[in-house]
Design a protein that fits this description.
Helix content: over 70%
Strand order of the largest sheet: 1-2
Order of helices and strands: HHHHHEEH
Structural class: mainly alpha
Number of domains: 1
Number of strands: 2
Length: about 160
């Protein structure tokens, strides 16, 4: 299971990197079209704003699994080994619960966005809201799985 989670995290992080490159290309195109032809791409700001949210959660799972999220090292360095392990296990369980709760409470807004044909953007460029919200909710679920995996490995270390 750990191997699958790590592979999924790597694939999602790679997808996040690809989205960043696509956004960079879109911004370059927008600037060039604005300067050369006076006709920028109408949806650049909206697409980049949506992409930033997606990239954050696409990359978060790998950052978590590689211990690259922010931590309060000042406090953690002072804890004895067993207490530190317990604290990290509990922190990971709280992280999993947080992201599962976020995913659960996002179900109704996703359904409502689907029913009402909600969109992001302006009249010049529109992005349907429900697929973006669904993608973020799924990424939250996957991040919760990563937190549970970290909690299990932390707890496993304390049992040894």
């Amino acid at each position: 299971m750990e191997r699958f989670i790590n592979r999924a995290a790597s694939l999602l992080a790679d997808l996040g990197s690809l989205v960043v490159y696509l956004c960079a290309g879109l911004i370059v195109y927008d600037v060039c079209a604005r300067l050369a032809f006076g006709r920028p791409f109408a949806g650049t700001a909206d697409l980049v704003a949506i992409a930033l949210v997606l990239v954050t959660f696409l990359q978060a799972m790998k950052a978590l699994l590689q211990d690259r999220l922010l931590q309060m090292t000042l406090l953690l360095e002072k804890l004895p080994g067993a207490v530190l392990t317990l604290a990290m296990t509990l922190a990971n369980l709280v992280g999993a619960a947080l992201f599962l709760c976020l995913a659960a409470i996002s179900v109704e807004p996703i359904e409502q966005a689907y029913r009402t044909h909600e969109f992001f953007g302006t009249d010049a460029f529109r992005v349907t809201a429900w697929p973006v919200r669904l993608a973020v909710a799924l990424l939250w679920c996957m991040l919760a799985v990563a937190f549970l995996s970290k909690a299990r490995s932390s707890f496993g270390r304390s049992a040894r």
